[in-house]
Amino acid sequence: MRVIATYSIKGGVGKTTSAANLAYLSALHGARTLLWDLDPQGAATFLFRVKPRVKGGGKALVRGRTAVDGLIRGTDFDRLDLLPADLSYRHMDLHLDGAKRPTRRLARVLSPLTEEYDRIFLDCPPSLSLVSESVFEAASVVLAPMIPAPLPARTLDQLSRFLRREAVRRPQLLAFFSMVDSRRKLHHEVVRELAGQRPEVLHTQIPASTVFEQMGVRRAPVETFAPRSAGAEAYRALWEEVLSLSAG
Amino acid sequence: MPTQAVLSGLRAHWTVASDPRATRDRRYLDTADWRVFAAGWTLEFDREKGHGSLLLRDRRSDAVVLVGETDGPPQFGPDLPAAASWARVRDAVDTRRLLVQAQLQTGLRTVRIVDGEGKTTARVVLEHHLAAANGARHRLARHAAIMPVRGYDRVAAKIAGLLGERLGLAAVDEPLLVSVLAVLEQPPPGSRLGPAAPLTPAMSAGDAMGAVMARLRQQLTENEPGVRGELDTEFLHDYRVALRRCRTIIRQVRDVLPAETAGALATELAWLADLTGPVRDLDVHLLELPGGPATDDSITPLRAHLTLRRAQAQAALVAALDSPRYVDLLELWQGVQRPPARPALTRAGQPAVTRAGQPAREVIDASIERAYRRVVRRGRAIRPSTAPEALHDLRKRGKELRYLLECFHHLYPDETRAAVVRELKALQDNLGEFQDCQVQAAALRSMADELLASRAAPAATLMAMGRLADALEGREARARAEFGTRFGRFDSPRNRKRFEELLAAGPADPP
Known about the structure:
By secondary structure, chain A is an alpha/beta fold. Helix content of chain A is about 40%, strand content about 15%. Chain B contains 15 helices and 9 strands.
């Protein structure tokens, strides 16, 4: 079982869009896939039309008092299941803080699912907190979307350094540009500065596109309603690149 | 099944959405001896829009367990998806070929039950199936398959209640593949033909012998197409086992078959066995060669040499199977299965002494006891210094005993017989390992001489062959060292008592 986390310190960079589309592609190609929506806003949960509610709340889940098995919901797509968000996740830091070995908690929640799923995606809330540390302990790959704003190299350095120094399991860091607008000069410059220069930055870029806004309306991954769009094509390419670099 | 009634029933209770109608073509794949099914699954290859997919389903619930992509239907284990989750399927298939056991065309109409968010909470798939095998086509009863969505099981349970209680539909509790084979009038999956004919204690020795010989002939002919077509190595293995079993019971169950026919058949079976031997030996050599991507290039010339020799041996075997002599052999075998109405005459014109009319248990008991005593006697005579030939001979005698126990197993109580066979098998495994390693190591060394003389292989190949032979000799020595313990267990007072119980026990219940 591989655990892939989509993570960024900043919000609004395309984490949920990426988690939803990549998890869908993973399932489409035959892998039994679970997406855990860790963000209390529950955007991924909304996208898959599931009610954002976890019986017993996040506290009971991370403290091992609720069995994760009964909380999983099947999505409308074969082999893709969802562990929904819950508003109580906003206090996840506190729940973890009060537990023993807090950074191991998320990995322990997932451990009974090893046989059942080939891949688990974690859609993380934007922050650098105990939750993210716990995510880094559970994940084998951290996928970091970056928007082509100034100083992305610095943000990447910070994350990379953090994973090297603090994360016990040292997950593989793979960063990629998202929301890239090819008409904007700044985007061109920022992308050129990093893409191809750093081994952890992927070649594939996700374009800014209205098709991603449509995901919220259609409440489905782009591949299902606009498979020929540039957005869908970009996610297919990104998924292939991730697979080729991360051994699945 | 009234499709409209199902749809109206569902609409009365839930919001229902329909997917476009679709058709599916699927092929059920399994080995000739149903290894995938025996492991608890069914395997389907579906071709859709130019690409193929493989679905592994739980054989009881029909739920999809694994999905994989593939260009064409896989033929052998290594053609299955490389993902670790498929490893257990690859293990189950082992060296066997995956054959198309049945084909099914399905027209599908999927209706989805959706909640207030537009989320699918259950699916009902209305299916009509057309099954095909060997040119025949048959329609199956229509099905409505309820597909629960995880976390929304209550909806599925309610649908089942609605379809069952209100609409009176009958639940199907067998896998689809079983229904498909039934409609095609084929034996159910997993009904592998054992060596034992369904014997009853009341049978005469002649009838029992005839029934077992008929079963063995059937096993042989069922494996013949696989042997001719070289589908996989197990067909020849099973073909040879049927041959050996038949030769054993002719030799060991005495005075039941007319002596002349038995003698003639034994001669012909020996001829056929001799032709199959070289092919099997070369199969074993090839299977034992290290495989996989990390294979040492140096063994490539050896592999080519073995493959060529196997092709030659196979050609000789197929020529024999095409010969009139083989047709005569099968006819002779069939003739033996029918016990003669009256005893045959000897050359002197006197009725031959025959035990064909005696109760089966009496005659077979005597054969088993004789075979058992022989194994014990010869096993006890083996010392650490005894020549390997004595162990090879003991292995043959052990096989004779085992074949008798297996072919006539319905005459004996299951539990005792199984315990006796288990202990015998442990001994046989040890003797088999010893002999196989010895024969293969010797063959490798003689092939090395051939290759060297014909300058057909570089030094690296000859060295690699030396390493393989060394490894085999190491295994041979270990097997020899273990022999004493294994035989000791077989010859233990406890196991002796089991044999006494087996022969003293009353006849088994009829199968």
